Amino acid sequence: MPQDELDIRAGVTAARDEAARAIDRLDTARRRAARTRGDQAGPDAGAPDLDRPARERPAREQEVAEAARALADAARELTRLVRDYG
Q1: Engineered SS bond to 82: which of 2, 30, 73, 86, CB 3.0-4.6 Å?
Q2: For the CA atoms of 39, 44, 48, 53, what is the dihedral angle to 10 degrees?
């Protein structure tokens, strides 16, 4: 196998692994935030309602929702690239 191909595969593997770690960190943060909201707001509190219009959500919650969507888009693109080239 040519060195260029090995380098590409190594890069794809590293990117895939980093994406998996980022998704794990996001999930951990989401669970922690949900627990915190539950502690502060009682048993009926849950994850933020991302289906509500953005103007109805607090700014920080909006920022997290946008970051989560961007990460999901990047994960889909990486999946497509790995499938096509991996």
Answers
A1: 86
A2: -140
